[in-house]
Design goal:
Elements lengths: L1 H14 L8 H12 L4 H13 L2 H20 L6
Helix pairs in contact: 2-4
Length: about 80
């Protein structure tokens, strides 16, 4: 079992898209969070709420696995 898990991890690393893209979804959420209120403490509260609810994690996962891969494979930066 351990050998097959290592082999699968290596195969994904070697044959996967393995791209670092612009992370547009994460950046949109982050930019929105910076301007949601005019008070920096309010922005911090929103940030903590989004972090606790795993919004930032889901956006990064979607960017890394879905959107950046689609963009890389299609060669189109407007894939989203």
């Amino acid at each position: 079992m351990k050998k097959s898990l290592i082999a699968a991890s290596l195969a994904l690393g070697l044959f996967g898209a393995s791209c670092l893209g612009p992370n547009k979804t994460f950046n949109k959420v982050h930019d929105w969070n910076m301007t949601v209120t005019s008070n920096r403490w309010g922005n911090e509260a929103v940030f903590l709420g989004l972090t606790i609810c795993q919004v930032y994690s889901l956006c990064l996962f979607a960017d890394y696995v879905v959107f950046n891969s689609i963009e890389w494979w299609s060669g189109d930066e407007s894939a989203k």
